[in-house]
Known about the structure:
Blueprint: H1 2-5, H2 9-20, H3 39-46, H4 50-60, E1 63-67, H5 83-87, E2 104-108, H6 117-126, E3 132-136, H7 148-154, E4 160-164, H8 174-178, E5 185-189, E6 192-194, H9 195-205, E7 211-215, E8 218-220, E9 226-227, H10 231-237, E10 244-251, H11 253-262, E11 268-273, H12 278-288, E12 296-304, E13 311-313, H13 320-329, E14 335-345, H14 347-353, E15 360-368, H15 383-396, H16 401-405, E16 417-419, H17 420-425, E17 437-441
Parallel strand pairs: 1-2, 2-3, 3-4, 4-5, 5-7, 6-8, 7-10, 10-11, 11-12, 12-14, 14-15
Antiparallel strand pairs: 8-9, 12-13, 15-17, 16-17
Amino acid sequence: xxxxxxxxxxxxxxxxxxxxxxxxxxYRFIGWQYPCYHYDxxxxxxxxxxxxxxxxxxxxxxxxxxxxxxxxxDRKREHTPMATDVLSTCGLFHSNLRGHYVRSLSRxxxxxxxxxxxxxxxxxxxxxxxxxxxxxxxxxxxxxPYGLQFFAQFCPSLSELYLENCRDxxxxxxxxxxxxxxxxxxxxxxxxxxxxxxxxxxxxxxPTLRSLLFQRVLIEQSSNKATSIPTPLYxxxxxxxxxxxxxxxxxGYGLVQIIVESSPHLENLALILHEIDPxxxxxxxxxxxxxxxxxxLSLTFRRVQPLSTMYExxxxxxxxxxxxxxxxxxxxxQVIHLSASRVLLHTDFLSHFxxxxxxxxxxHHIAWCPKTHGNDDLSSNGERALLDExxxxxxxxxxxxxxxxxxxxxxxLMPYLFTGxxxxxxxYRSLEITDRVCFIKGFSxxxx
Length: 448
């Protein structure tokens, strides 16, 4: 220990950083990648001696999570301090308040209605160096603002925002425009936002935004009703230069083109396509194959209803050769989830795809197709040729798993081929009842 303490603080700090850093799996699509450090690893180091405590303290308070207790919690037995009380006290041997060290803040307010604006304002003032904010609100409609304006006002370094169940009835989001908060990461789940505010926020964040995750995000109307995000606004939003993108609204080929052209360095992508025109579906797949930096891809074919949870599952109306082309162009792809009521594939899709072993693969429902066309460049084919090839593949497609088992070159991959019944029996309950043949490798955390 004495020899370790002979090292300069800069080296000791690097050792602490490497020892306690949370190594998030880059092959998972995670919207909130905090805390950055393992508290259980930091605490024993901090308790070793005063010098190491001084070095560890900023990391101990860097990432904080506060959960609102249930309203019927019995607090008589044990006093639960307010989050602001914790943040407004000084740490041992330090003159700075604990809130001074906080860089990411997560507030779970789902256990009850929380309208204490004074508390939110004080908290925002205490975490003035905040960079990342997550708030999970109670889903019930509120009768007053959500308090976002305080964090926009008092946290000038705020660059990452993650909100759930935030309805923009009072134009809370406009405060981020007012105070010029340009985000690098924006995650909204089950939220609404006013049209003009989203328009201005897109323009403000376009130079910096790299991560965008929208799940069930709607436009708030003055009539207290919500509508889907219009296509022109999506065109503006998707013209940002992103590396991570996930959307729950279904898109067409035109928006896929914008994504590929604007974000050539995309690494993580989750999309839903509603195209059923074989030409446009094929061109969508060929466009996605140009994203050679992709590590994660989730692609679903369905028509969704933005104002409800209803959806219609669609087939992937593209010739099998489109997917063979796709597999040969993406050497960095490690995770792929492909879902449709039917996907036409050649054998070489699976064999080519596994020349570089992938960590996680889920394909459903896949139909085997024999090769009936040449190896010419599919991207140069005209509309009539693409349509004819799709019709030919459709005519010869086989939905039975036995068609795949006859392919000798797939020998080592056979353990990953399942009937839908087998996959569901193995715990993959999310599969549709109509999924007759599936290919599953990994995704063990999806098993129920």
